[in-house]
Every structure is written in structure tokens, then in C-alpha cells.
Write a structure and sequence with these properties.
This protein has about 170 residues and is an all-alpha fold. It has five helices and no strands. The protein has one domain: Up-down Bundle (Ferritin), CATH 1.20.1260. It is elongated, with a radius of gyration of 17 Å. The site of MU-OXO-diiron (FEO) has 7 residues, from α1, α2 and α3.
Length: about 170
């Protein structure tokens, strides 16, 4: 049986993951409209991954006999100024998500919920990966600045990203 405090924190995280998905779908749409199909596709994959993150929490709560409570998803912005602006805001957002996951882990520790601690390890590793990928792209974009050819090439490179379902959802 799932501890109530852990259950509440997990449900809050489901909402945060769906908000992330919504945020990235909005960025993907902005970038497509601005003429960057590759960056748009990259954020489209990000959109799918965030939905997966939410689904894994849903499945986990249910597997522990808990109750899933879905709350409204807050509005997201629709305009940015450049691809660099999108990736900078993505890094700031992912830093917040990392803090949320760490906080969730602290709750699981305090409540001596070892199964939740074990499940959260995948998210902790995932956040390291997310932050690194986004930071690398920011570094590239800062190097390129307004160079059209550089932007064209990076857009092509990031557009090659493909979606793969995480192991937890792939059976
Ligand atoms: Fe669900 Fe981008 O972290």
C-alpha cells in the first residue's frame, strides 16, 4: 500500500510531467512556424518523452494500490525569440524538474518508502542526461550565433532525433 504523502507527491509530479509535455509541444509548434523543422522535431520527441514520464508514474501508483488524481494543466507560453531562447528556457525548466525529482526522493526517504526510492533512480539518471543534452545544444547555439549555415546544419542534426519508448513502457 502506498503511503499517502508519497502518493500526493507522485500525483503532483504527474501534473508537472504533463505540463512539461505541453510546454515542449508549444515550443515545437513555435519552432515549426519559425522555419526550424529539425528543432521542432527534437521538441516533438521531447513532448512524447514527457508523456511517458507521466505514464510511468501513473502505472507505478496503480501498481502500489494507490489512487491517480489528475489535476488541470496550467497554460504555457506560445512565443519565444529564437532557438537559443527555447533551449535556455528548457534548461531552466529541466533544472526545476531535477529539484522536483530530488524533493520527491527526499519524501520517499523520510517515509521509508524503499520501492519508490528505487523507481525514482531512473528519473534521477534521466535528469542528468536531459540537462547535459540541452547544455550541449546551448553551447553549440552560442558558438553559431546568427550564422545561417550553422543554424541550418544544427537544425538538420537535431532533426535526426528519433523517439524510443522507455523500457518500462515497451512491453
Ligand atoms: Fe520529465 Fe524532462 O523531465
Amino acid at each position: 500500500m502506498l503511503n499517502k504523502r508519497v502518493e500526493e507527491a507522485l500525483n503532483a509530479q504527474i501534473n508537472a510531467e504533463f505540463w512539461s509535455a505541453y510546454f515542449y509541444l508549444s515550443m515545437s509548434s513555435y519552432l515549426a512556424h519559425a522555419g526550424y523543422p529539425g528543432f521542432s522535431k527534437w521538441f516533438g520527441v521531447q513532448f512524447k518523452e514527457e508523456q511517458d514520464h507521466a505514464q510511468i508514474f501513473v502505472n507505478y501508483i496503480l501498481s502500489r494500490g494507490g489512487k491517480v488524481t489528475l489535476k488541470p494543466i496550467a497554460e504555457v507560453k506560445t512565443e519565444w525569440t529564437s532557438p537559443l531562447n527555447c533551449f535556455e528556457e528548457t534548461l531552466a525548466h529541466e533544472n526545476n524538474v531535477t529539484a522536483m525529482i530530488n524533493n520527491l526522493y527526499s519524501v520517499a526517504l523520510e517515509e521509508k518508502d524503499f520501492a519508490t526510492q528505487s523507481m525514482l533512480k531512473w528519473y534521477i539518471d534521466e535528469q542528468v542526461e536531459e540537462e547535459k543534452t540541452v547544455q550541449d545544444t546551448i553551447d553549440n547555439l552560442r558558438l553559431i550565433k546568427d550564422n545561417g549555415f550553422g543554424l541550418y546544419m544544427l537544425d538538420k542534426e537535431l532533426g535526426a532525433r528519433t523517439y524510443t519508448a522507455p523500457a518500462q513502457l515497451s512491453e
